[in-house]
Amino acid sequence: MNNSTTTTTSKGLRWGPFTLRIPFVHIKFRAGEFFQGMVISGATAFAAVPVAMGLGLSFEDGIALSFISGTLIASGPIIFGEPMAPGWITPALPIVIAAFAAKGQFTGVYDVATFQYMAAICIEFTLLVFILGVTGWGKKLIQVIPNGLKAGIILGAALAAFYQVFVTDIDKLLIQPISMFIAISVCIITTFSDPFKKLAANNSFFNKVGSLGLLPGFILAAFVAFLCNEVTFNIEWGFKIPDVVTLFNKTSPLAIGFPPVEMYLEALPLVIIGYTLLFGDLITANEVLNDAQKSRPDEPLDINLDRSHLSIAARNLLGLMVNPFFPTQGALWTGVHVVVVERWKKGFKEMPSLYDGLGSYYLMALPILYFTLPFITLMKPLMQMALTLTLILTGFACAYVAMAIPKKNSEMASALLIAVFITFFSAWVGLLVGIILSIFVVGLDKTES
């Protein structure tokens, strides 16, 4: 066991199909990932707060919501032993916001029915992911969905994200016009620009900037916002425990009652869309790990997509019992996953185990950010900016993926029409239109595609 090439798949405590790795026992502390995770998580952890407030919760409720979802996300690699950097099913976020807005439930006014509907989405999604994990049918379900419909769902997420930012929330965008413009511009360049990628390939500084995701743009924009008086900070000192009890009483189906049957029927299209997006994340994570494994034969990774389904189902079950919030419990935070895996690929001396990097990045599952008043009050005026950047980057990423899926002109045209119906009408209408187009316009013969 003293050999430096001992595999970490043997470390940890097995429970069922999962492996618990206790921080500082089975997971070694990595300062670089820890501090990087603290800063980057800090820039994005509270993007859920404006969404929570749009659903009628208070700022304090939003902090408690972020605490619950963030803690459960961090449990992915630590408690369930998943070799992935988990995150939200982010592309589903704009579609879900649009669905609540269409029902008149995204006005900032609290309503029990809002969270009963949210519970219906989360309960159905949890059951679907669990069943597909137990049976192994997940891959078969995705294969059944035609390319045009698949691309339309993902493109719908892109359109919904852009519509939310540039139409629905345009007044919020104009409150901080200079800093928002800088934030969006810098983040798009560092994340998607081909000229920047060429520059980063030959320059270590720009390579590092590019690896930090939205953080450079966020920090620069926050600084400019302060200089231009677009934000004011009111820093408070001390610590405060998030008010999970109040959040539970306002949102948990155990407190407000379970949703009626008609809500489950209304939620079904959102659940199918959410799963389609989730499966894409699972495939992406799997491909990144398989490619990296060639560089690290000393640590064979236990990659099992059926187990991943069960892990996600368990996290969603725990979450919905306290605070149903879709799409919080997903499989992948792509940027973090790639950054940690790339460092792990460099060898044992750089990162002995992938789980050392993942555990440290997720702060060893210590939710310290949510208890620290100086950090929370520093972030408070910047939370809308964090949400806007999350939606913009999600929109660009979804557009990239969606455009690459169709193989025929009919699939491309169908995808665009499906996306429009999902964004401007409803998920049900979008799916029904997608099915009709797939049958009568594209055709179900996959040999041509």
Provide structural commentary.
There is one protein chain. The protein is mainly α. The protein folds into 2 domains: 28-176 and 231-448, no CATH class; 177-230, no CATH class. Helix content is 66%, strand content 1%. It has a two-stranded antiparallel ribbon. The chain is globular and about 55 Å long.
Give descriptors for this structure.
single chain; 449 residues; mainly alpha; 2 domains; two-stranded antiparallel ribbon; 2 strands; globular; disordered N terminus
What is the total tally of β strands?
Answer: 2
Percent range of helical residues: 55-70%
Average residue pLDDT: 87
Shape: globular
How much strand content do the residues show?
Answer: under 5%
Give the distance, in angstroms, between the N- and C-terminal Cα atoms.
51 Å
Structural class per helix/strand content? mainly alpha
Quickly count the helices.
22
Tally of structural domains? 2
Order of helices and strands: EEHHHHHHHHHHHHHHHHHHHHHH
Contiguous runs where pLDDT drops below 50 for at least 5 residues: 1-10
Using only C-alpha atoms, the radius of gyration works out to 21 Å
Strand order of the largest sheet: 1-2
Question: In a few lines, what is going on in this structure?
Answer:
With 449 residues, the chain is an all-alpha fold.
Helix and strand arrangement:
Layout: E1 13-15, E2 18-20, H1 31-44, H2 48-54, H3 59-78, H4 92-102, H5 112-135, H6 138-144, H7 147-168, H8 170-173, H9 177-192, H10 194-201, H11 204-211, H12 215-227, H13 244-251, H14 253-256, H15 261-293, H16 305-322, H17 334-345, H18 354-361, H19 373-379, H20 383-404, H21 409-424, H22 427-442
Antiparallel strand pairs: 1-2
Helix pairs in contact: 1-18, 2-3, 3-16, 4-7, 5-15, 5-16, 7-20, 7-21, 7-22, 9-12, 9-20, 10-11, 15-17, 17-18, 21-22
